[in-house]
Structure formats: structure tokens, C-alpha cells
Amino acid sequence: MTPAALPTLAGLILALGGPALLAGPLQRHLGGENARSTSLIDQLCRLALLAGVIAVVMRWDGRPLASLGWSGFAWQSVAWGSMLAFVFVRVLVPAETRLLGRLGLAADHGLAPPKRLPVPLLVFVALVAGVAEETLYRGYAFTRIAELADSEIFAGLITVGVLAQVHLYRRGGGAVAAFVINGGVLTAFFAWRHDLLANVIAHTLTDLIVPLEAARLAPARR
């Protein structure tokens, strides 16, 4: 391995290995993800991983944040992210719910944060998930693996597969089935636009709206 590849290797370990560690041994030690303390610690650890990857990019590798698909604020990114969130909330998630129900799997869509959390913490979880997961998996892991392998298809398969495995630890087979679809759409969108802000907005809005709507509709179903 050449010295030039060391920053990328370190970044990939943080971006891909860190969330897997949080979802597996660490979460089992701390307790269920629906516990408030566990959820808060989980989000703070994600922010630490995010800070670590950004430090690798800017300090060690000497590359700008633009290499992650971040080009600053743009209304076009807001529009794209909002439209993609609309597709998730109104089209994909309802379709997945029906499909998973017919298959006898739990209707956990992989993007939604833990249930039974107070609204302020739910907002914090959704925001951290959107920023951290999109930066770690799409902005960093996807772009760097695509560079190393010279293949965005290969990079997409690896990143979607790894994050789907993380959701298997957290929520079971239903989440994995849904996440392969959701994560595939987010990855394909990023490969097309290379607009990290749009991905973050889409992910955050979906993570926020889906559980809030589920909570609002729950009393009517009882």
C-alpha cells in the first residue's frame, strides 16, 4: 500500500466500520436503540465519526469538502432534496409498507429513526442521521471507493450493502429489504447529481416525516 492511500483507508475504516460498530457491539452494551440515553450517545458518536472523516479529508488528505459532493448552500439542492423526500414519503415508503406486510416482515423502512422518542430528540436524530450517514456513506465512502475501483456501480453496491447490514443489526430483515431500495435510490441520485446537500435534505426530511406521520395515525388505528 502506498503512503498516498493511507488517508483513504483510514477514512473508509471510520465511514464504514464506525457505524457498524455502533450498531453491533456498542448498542448491545448500552441497551436498545429506543432508550433515550442510548439514542443520544449513538448520535454523538456519529457526529464524532463525521468529524473524524472531515479531518481526514481536509487535514490528512488535503482535499476540499467539494470532493465529498459539498458545494455550499444552493436553492437548487433544496428543491431536489425536497422532491426526493416527497417521493420517499408519498410513494416508496407506502409501497414498501404494503409489500413488507404481504411478506410478513416488519414495516421498518430503514430510513426512519427509533420510535418512542420525544419530538426534540427525534428531530435531532433525524438531522444527525441525514448529515452523518449521507456524508459518511455517500459523500465519502461512495466517492472514494468509486475512485479506487474506477466504478460507481461497484461503489454503490458496497456502500448500500454495508449500510443495509448495519440496519440488519438494528432492526431486522424488514429494514434491510426496505433499505436496499431506499439506499439504492439515494446512492443513484448522488451518483447522478453529486449534490451532498440534496441527499442530506432528502434523508433528513424522510427520517423526520415518516415517524411523525406514523405517530399521528397510530391513535386512529387503535
Distance between the termini: 59 Å
**What is the strand tally?**
0
Mean pLDDT: 85
The total of helices stands at 7
Fraction of helical residues: over 70%
Structural class: mainly alpha
- Rounded Rg: 17 Å
Net shape:
globular
Strand coverage percent? under 5%
What's the quaternary structure here? Answer: single chain
Largest sheet: none
**How many domains make up the coordinates?**
1
Low confidence ranges? none
N-to-C order of helices and strands:
HHHHHHH
Can you put this structure into words, describing what you see?
The protein is mostly helical and 222 residues long. It has one domain (3-65, 73-221). It is 80% helix and 0% strand. The chain has seven helices and no strands. It has helices spanning 6-30, 36-60, 75-103, 119-149, 152-171, 173-193, 196-221. The chain is globular and about 55 Å long. The model has no long low-confidence stretch (mean pLDDT 85).
